[in-house]
Structure formats: C-alpha cells, structure tokens
Specification:
- By secondary structure, this protein is mostly helical.
- The chain contains six helices and two strands.
- It is 55% helix and 10% strand.
- The chain is globular and about 55 Å long.
- The two termini are 33 Å apart.
- Keywords: Ribonucleoprotein, Ribosomal protein, RNA-binding, rRNA-binding, tRNA-binding.
Length: 158
C-alpha cells in the first residue's frame, strides 16, 4: 500500500555570521569536508579578504562579480527522443547558476598546485573577477556546447 510521497521542502540556509550572506554559507558548505565547518569558514573568509584587498572591492562584491562572470546563461541537457540522445540547450535559472558557479570555482581552485587552499581559492576568485581562469573557461565551453546544439532547441518544448 502506498504511503503517499510528499515533496521535500527546499532547505533554507542561514546567513553566515561575518558577512550575513546566504551565498557565503552555501560556498562554505561546498568547501566543508568531514563536517569541519569552522575550517571551511576560515578558508573562505581569508580567501575573500585576500581577493578583496587585491581587487580593491568589498568581499560580497567580489562574490557577485564572480557569479556574474562565471555563471552560465545556457547549458545542455541530454534528452532521449525517438531512440536518439540529443544535447538540448536550456536556460539556467538563478539557483542553478549559483550552484554551477560555486562548483566550478571550487574545482578550479582545487586543481591548482602548491599552495594552501585559501590562497588557491583567492587566486581563483581574482581570476573569475577578471574574466580569466579555469572556471571562466568552463563557462565558455558550456556556452560553446549550447551554441553548437542550437539546432535542437525546439526539442526543449516537447
């Protein structure tokens, strides 16, 4: 007998204690490993402090510029139609844009070698604000894929 599935409620994050931003909390949760939130907070706070000092901007402005420069407008999603898989370009909503941006910046920072994580993240934030770096390249690759598969955009409405 079915117990009736209920839709999960979207978990509301609390703003962080230093900047009062939900985005910083989300970024902290992405960085956190093994439940060590204080370590993750220290990493992101020092990275934001260093990058804002080098760029001469407020830390939250640095994050907003990063989201603007790295966040994709389009992405491709695989859809099976008539026995064939098509890569269909779709628009990205704000929440997914933030998620992809944080994920790409973090993976680009992790792939850098020979420095503490706070320093690597700081350098990646600076690169993202200057429209350079691995995270921006990932965005451009995603847009290039969407542009190449623009012919299948009409399948998005099916």
């Amino acid at each position: 007998m079915s117990r009736g599935h209920q839709k999960l409620k979207n978990h509301q994050l609390k703003p962080d204690r230093k900047y009062g931003s939900v985005l910083v909390t989300k970024f902290t949760n992405y960085i956190m490993q093994c439940g060590k939130k204080t370590v993750a907070e220290n990493i992101i706070y020092s990275a934001l402090k260093n990058s804002s000092k080098k760029l001469g901007a407020e830390p939250l402005d640095v994050l907003e510029r990063m989201i603007k420069n790295v966040g994709p407008l389009l992405e491709v999603k695989a859809k099976r139609i008539g026995g064939a898989n098509y890569q269909i370009p779709m628009e990205v909503n704000r929440e997914r844009k933030e998620t992809l941006t944080l994920r790409w910046v973090l993976s680009a920072a992790k792939s850098r070698k020979g420095a503490p994580m706070a320093e690597k993240l700081s350098l990646e934030l600076i690169d993202a604000c200057n429209n350079t770096g691995a995270a921006v390249k990932k965005k451009e690759d995603t847009h290039r894929m969407a542009e190449a598969n623009k012919a299948f955009a009409h399948f998005a409405r099916l």
